[in-house]
Amino acid sequence: MLLSLKNISKTFSETGITVLKGVSIDIEKGDFVSIVGASGSGKSTLLTIMGGIDKPTSGEVLLHGKDISQMTEKELAVLRRTKIGFVFQFFNLAPNLTVYENIMLPIVLGGKSQKDFKEKADNLLKYLGIEAQAEKFPSKLSGGEQQRVAIARSLIYEPEIIFLDEPTGNLDSKASKDIMSLLKNINEELKTTIVQVTHSKTNASFGNKIVSIEDGSIGEEVIKNKAVSIENEITVIETVSTENENIGGGKE
Ligand SMILES: Nc1ncnc2c1ncn2[C@@H]1O[C@H](COP(=O)(O)OP(=O)(O)O)[C@@H](O)[C@H]1O
Ligand SMILES: [Mg+2]
């Protein structure tokens, strides 16, 4: 198992509110997992715990069997920079760095030689269709392009797994659809495991596992190729997975 959450609970000490109550999830290499749920249900909290940004109050976060919730902040920083990618709704690019420099930022921060990663960065620019933007600053790019840069940056160390929190939440429907197709390609071609949080049913259906968070616990879990859940959910998935679907509906 690539990533296994065992009975994760999270209480924020500031408020005393328990956001996650005994959440367990297994993520296998190559999975494309969608986490859905109402606003405030704990999706982002869960994602940050999965990715070692925040720690659970109790429970285990096993990455290749090793509990990352027990790691020191220093160990976690290295893990996050090299083994895990993160992509956020508002792109989080450095405004005064060019696209190329943003993609190289994890390399610079890691004290590695940019020369060793130049080919990788060039390939990612091509793969994500943002070659022409390489020397531009983020403010000159569309939202969709900025999100591609954030995705390229998340892939520079070839992580096994990337986490995306509402990656299309700030994009129009066309850009949103493009990003979802890209993620599908990344999952299938680069074999990167993907965990995304989304509001959109259509976007969720790109996942082979769809997990809903309800009142801090796992509500429904749909596993596509094993078809464990209710029939109409499965039908929805098959309908929206076709290549030329019309996503519709503007921002999610
Ligand atoms: N750092 C924090 N301190 C206190 N409460 C928090 C913190 N982060 C999130 N929460 C609370 O936890 C709940 C779940 O938040 P979040 O995980 O962001 O939900 P979602 O991503 O599903 O919208 C919310 O009630 C939110 O206010
Ligand atoms: Mg959130």
What is the quaternary state of this protein? single chain
Mean pLDDT: 90
The global form is globular
List all distinct small molecules, including ions and cofactors, that are bound in this structure. adenosine-5'-diphosphate, magnesium ion
Structural class: alpha/beta
Span from first to last CA?
32 Å
| Strand element count | 10
**Low-pLDDT segments, ≥5 res:** 226-252
The order of strands across the largest sheet is 6-7-8-3-9-10
Query: How much of the polypeptide forms β-strand, as a percent range?
Result: 15-25%
Taking the sheet with the most strands, its summary is: 6 strands, mixed
H/E topology pattern: EEEHEEHEHHHEHEHEEH
Portion of residues in helices?
Answer: 25-40%
Number of helices: 8
The whole-angstrom Rg is 18 Å
Protein described:
- The protein has about 250 residues and is of the alpha/beta class.
- It contains eight helices and ten strands.
- The strands form two sheets. Strands 6-7-8-3-9-10 form a six-stranded mixed sheet, with helices on both faces.
- Strand 9 and strand 10 (about 215-225) form a beta hairpin.
- The structure holds adenosine-5'-diphosphate and magnesium ion.
- Magnesium ion (MG) binds near residues 43, 44 and 165.
Short structural summary:
This protein is 35% helix and 24% strand. The chain has 252 residues and is an alpha/beta fold.
Provide the descriptors you would attach to this structure in a database record:
252 residues, alpha/beta, 6-stranded mixed β-sheet, 4-stranded antiparallel β-sheet, 8 helices, 10 strands, globular, disordered C terminus, binds adenosine-5'-diphosphate, binds magnesium ion
